[in-house]
Amino acid sequence: MFKFCFVTDDKLTPLSKLDNYLKIIFESKVDCIQLRFKNLKTIDLYNLGKDLKKDCVKFKKTLIVNDRVDIAKSINAHGAHVGMDDLPYNQARKILGRKSIIGVSASNKNEFIKVKKLKGVDYIGVSAFSSNTKKEMKNYFGLSGLKICAKATKIPLIAIGGINISDVNSILKLKIHGVAMISSLLKGNIKKNCMDVSKIISSYEKI
After folding, report:
1. What is the DSSP string of 68-112?
2. This model's pTM is above 0.85
């Protein structure tokens, strides 16, 4: 399963810049792309996803579609990521089948308790790690919260939300499976940022 995910975003990766970002991401050791555009029309998201799937196959990346299980199914993505307000996990599994990767978000302690009980979930997206991306955010997991989650389940955990490159080592020390990132990868030299994160991840794979 993937350990280093790049997430697209309506504001941070607008369509006008997306191609340039993805060219760098595809050449990096990022091993997963999560297609997440909440404001695109269905047909536009479908067309974008269809093209992205071809590139992901070419560059050997995992493609996960956020929220839209129907899009994931129609473009034959590797899987989907759903939240508590999206199509229920059990229904997503029926639609996508046993071989698809399906992750579920947990944005607080109560959601985590519910998600870890779901049978067959491939990973739990623990969000948010910090309040770096949303200054008004009061509820976030932090290292202490991730530590509790890691001890409470054997399901792979993917940390997301406000993760800086300097946080990655501390996160992985807790036996968190991987990280999903956006803004910190796009600041400055994207190629170097991806390389720095992949080196940290690789150091844990050797343990």
Report:
1. -HHHHHHTT-SEEEE-TTSS-HHHHHHHH-TTSEEEEEE-SHHHH
2. yes
Q: What is the CATH number of the domain that holds 166?
A: 3.20.20.70
Measured from the Cβ of residue 158, the count of other Cβ atoms closer than 10 Å reads: 26
Residue 106: C-alpha distances to residues 20, 59, 116, 142, 205 (Å): 31, 30, 9, 13, 25
- Can the peptide bond before residue 92 be classed as cis, meaning omega within 30 degrees of 0? no
- Number of compact structural domains in the chain: 1
Answer yes or no: is pLDDT of 1 > 70. yes
Distances (CA, A) of 157 to 41, 67, 73, 124: 30, 18, 24, 5
Are 168 and 130 spatial neighbours (Cβ–Cβ below 8 Å)?
Answer: no
pLDDT at residue 133 is higher than 60: no
Residue in the block written with tokens 């990022």: 30
* Burial environment of residue 59 by CB neighbours within 10 A (0 to 12, 13 to 18, 19 or more): middle
Our measurement of the distance from residue 202's CA atom to the centroid of its chain's CA atoms, rounded to an integer in Å, reads 18
pLDDT in tens, 90-101: 999 999 999 999
Q: What is the mean pLDDT of residues 118-146?
A: 84
Whether the per-residue pLDDT at 169 is higher than 90: the answer is: yes
